[in-house]
Structures are given as structure tokens and as C-alpha cells.
């Protein structure tokens, strides 16, 4: 288990994947509108989240869930829900 | 024209013989590291050995390209060893000819899996690092049969036409990542595959070719090597017939 919080780990992935600054990755930031992601980026982000949070998510993120993950905050609460459930 | 290849690694399926082997040799001659894939260990091993003997860099990899799980495992290992496979040439192919009325389900599925599904397996398995690197070349070897059809090859024609559709959709998906995806569609080329044809069929076939001869594997390889080069960076989603003018 990583010592970092889920928020920090999510932020790290987004910074690497989308080549943005940490300050831009706020809970309200939208991947498409604020962070310059395109559809291929979103797929790659979801795959990166699945990899990083495989213990929390326990499997793949289904398409029906991934399309709801529009902001950084959406992702953090999704992973927390999965980890709790 | 001088072609540019800067520190590139390529994977060529069906590289044991015929067109695939010529493509592997042609890329290696340009300084590209080549992973020669074929089903049999001895076949890809010999191809890689020949390339190394002539001063190129090559590795052999025995995988059944029709086996999704085997290809996925091979891709995972490759990406540990090489970080990124920059150039993928989906060339592996088989024929199971027969008139449609007598074609078995097995002959249909084998040809679809080995020729067409394999493109999906390899491309999916190797695409991610290319998107990160913002550079990639995917070249799918189709056939004139996928464009104009051929009696006795409903399975092969379907697979080869399918590769063209696969290429165009994929080309659109990954264009923003500076990855090009193209098709080379050979006509009758002198290989083991066409050597199996009877002399009568070969003579008749040559008559259908405006240039009146079978092509050489090197004539396909030179097109592929160009498409893999830096110089071909503005070409994507296209099908290039190298068939002596059969399809025009």
C-alpha cells in the first residue's frame, strides 16, 4: 500500500498523463474542459486508474461508470466509494 | 531518397519467410531493430539469425498470432524489454482456399483469426507506448484479393478487406498521437504461398497483371520501409496497391 492519499495518487497520474501542472488538478477541474484531455486521453486515464487502484477498484472500471468520471473530484470519490464497498 | 530511422524498433509478424521476411530484412538494413515473429521457433529464428549475420539487429519471437492470450502475453513481455515498439507490421497470413459452398467453418475462422484478428491483437497490445511517445507506424499487409476479390477465397478476401476497414478506423483514432496506420495490398508475389499454385493458374494469373509478371517480395518491402520511415509521416489511413496494376 502506498503512503500517499488517494487524492495525491490521482493527481500524480493526471499530471503525468495529461502533462499539466499540479495546481491545475483541482477537484472541480474537468478533464475535457479544463485539463485539455481528448477521448483517447480519457481512455488512457481510466486504464491508468485501474492499474494504480487495482486493490481499491477490484477489477475494471465499466464504460457506464467511466463516462460519469468528468472531473478530478468524480474520480477521487469513485475510488473511495469502491474502496469502502 | 535517404530514409530516416532514429533508434527505432519494429515488430514484423509472419517474418519467417516470404513478404514478411523481406520486410524484416529491409527494415534491418535501415538500422531498425527488428523482432521477427512467426508461429514456428525455427522459422523466425532463422530469419533473425540471417539478419544478424548480415550486420543487422534482430530477435526471434515464436507466437501464434491467432491466439489472443498468447499475443497479449508476448506484448507485455516485449514492452518490458523494449519500452516501445515503434513500428508494427501485421503481415502474418494464411490461406484455406475453397469455393464458398464447400468452405468449412474452420477454414473460415482460421483465416479470419490469423489474418484479421491478429491485427487487432497486436495493435491493441502495442499501441499504448506509441500514444505516449507521440510516434508510431502501423502497417497492415492486406492483398489485392481484399480489393477486387477472388473466387475460392471468400475467407481470405473478407479478412483482407477487413484489414482495410480496421486500418481506416484505427488511423482516425490515433492520428492525434502522430501514429500513422496504412495498408499495403500486394498482388501476386513470388513466395511459398503463390508457389503452391499450379503452373496453369500462375500463367493465367500473370495475364491478369498489367505489368505481366509476379512481383518480388523486395518490391513490397520497399513500400513498407518507406511507410515506416520519418519521411512518410503525413500519410495515414491509406491503402497502397503494389500489384503490377491489377487493381486500378
Low-confidence stretches of chain B: none
Radius of gyration of chain B: 17 Å
Question: What is the beta-strand fraction of chain A?
Answer: under 5%
Mean pLDDT of chain A: 92
Order of helices and strands of chain A: HHHHH
What is the percentage of strand-forming residues of chain B?
15-25%
Biggest sheet of chain A: strands, sense, closure?
none
Walk me through the structure.
The complex is a heterodimer of chains A (85) and B (248). With 85 residues, chain A is mostly helical. Chain A has five helices and no strands. In chain A, helix 1 packs antiparallel against helix 2 (39-52) and helix 1 crosses helix 5 (72-84). The two termini of chain A are 18 Å apart. By secondary structure, chain B is an alpha/beta fold. Helices cover 48% and strands 15% of the residues of chain B. Chain B has nine helices and seven strands. Chain B has a seven-stranded parallel sheet, sandwiched between helices. In chain B, helix 1 (18-29) links the parallel strand 1 (9-13) and strand 2 (33-38). The radius of gyration of chain B is 17 Å and the shape is globular. The two termini of chain B are 26 Å apart. The relative contact order of chain B is 0.15. The mean pLDDT of chain B is 96. At the A-B interface, helix 2 of A face loops of B. Chain A: It is found in: Cytoplasm. Chain A: Its main location: cytoplasm. Chain A: Keywords: Cytoplasm, Fatty acid biosynthesis, Fatty acid metabolism, Lipid biosynthesis, Lipid metabolism, Phosphopantetheine, Phosphoprotein. Chain A: GO terms for molecular function: acyl binding; acyl carrier activity. Chain A: This is Acyl carrier protein.
Architecture blueprint of SSEs:
The complex is a heterodimer of chains A (85) and B (248).
Chain A: H1 6-18, H2 39-52, H3 54-57, H4 63-66, H5 72-84
Chain B: E1 9-13, H1 18-29, E2 33-38, H2 41-53, E3 58-62, H3 68-82, E4 87-90, H4 105-133, E5 136-141, H5 145-148, H6 154-174, E6 179-186, H7 192-195, H8 199-207, H9 217-228, E7 239-242
Parallel strand pairs in B: 1-2, 1-4, 2-3, 4-5, 5-6, 6-7
Helix pairs in contact in B: 1-9, 3-4, 4-6
Amino acid at each position: 500500500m502506498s503512503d500517499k492519499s488517494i487524492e495525491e495518487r490521482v493527481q500524480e497520474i493526471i499530471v503525468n498523463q495529461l502533462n499539466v501542472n499540479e495546481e491545475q488538478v483541482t477537484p472541480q477541474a474537468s478533464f475535457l474542459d479544463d485539463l485539455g484531455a481528448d477521448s483517447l486521453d480519457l481512455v488512457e486515464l481510466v486504464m491508468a486508474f485501474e492499474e494504480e487502484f487495482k486493490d481499491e477498484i477490484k477489477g475494471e472500471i465499466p464504460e457506464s461508470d467511466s463516462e460519469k468520471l468528468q472531473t478530478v473530484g468524480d474520480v477521487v470519490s469513485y475510488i473511495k466509494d469502491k474502496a469502502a464497498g | 531518397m535517404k530514409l530516416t530511422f532514429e533508434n527505432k524498433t519494429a515488430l514484423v509478424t509472419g517474418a519467417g519467410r516470404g513478404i514478411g521476411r523481406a520486410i524484416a530484412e529491409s527494415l534491418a538494413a535501415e538500422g531498425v531493430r527488428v523482432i521477427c515473429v512467426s508461429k514456428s521457433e525455427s522459422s523466425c529464428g532463422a530469419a533473425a539469425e540471417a539478419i544478424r549475420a548480415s550486420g543487422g539487429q534482430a530477435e526471434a519471437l515464436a507466437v501464434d498470432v491467432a491466439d489472443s492470450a498468447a499475443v497479449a502475453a508476448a506484448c507485455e513481455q516485449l514492452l518490458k524489454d523494449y519500452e516501445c515498439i515503434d513500428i508494427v507490421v501485421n503481415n502474418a497470413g494464411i490461406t484455406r482456399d475453397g469455393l464458398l459452398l464447400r468452405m468449412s467453418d474452420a477454414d473460415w475462422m482460421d483465416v479470419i483469426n490469423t489474418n484479421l484478428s491478429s491485427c487487432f491483437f497486436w495493435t491493441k497490445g502495442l499501441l499504448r507506448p506509441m500514444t505516449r511517445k507521440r510516434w508510431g507506424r502501423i502497417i497492415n499487409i492486406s492483398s489485392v484479393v481484399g480489393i477486387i476479390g477472388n473466387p475460392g477465397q471468400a475467407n481470405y478476401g473478407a479478412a483482407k478487406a477487413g484489414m482495410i476497414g480496421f486500418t481506416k478506423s484505427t488511423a482516425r483514432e490515433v492520428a492525434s498521437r502522430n501514429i500513422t496506420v496504412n495498408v499495403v495490398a500486394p498482388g501476386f508475389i513470388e513466395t511459398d504461398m503463390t508457389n503452391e499454385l499450379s503452373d496453369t493458374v500462375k500463367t493465367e494469373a500473370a495475364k491478369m497483371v498489367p505489368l505481366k509478371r509476379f512481383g518480388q517480395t523486395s518490391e513490397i518491402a520497399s513500400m513498407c520501409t518507406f511507410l515506416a520511415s520519418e519521411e512518410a509521416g503525413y500519410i495515414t489511413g491509406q491503402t497502397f496497391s503494389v500489384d503490377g496494376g491489377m487493381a486500378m
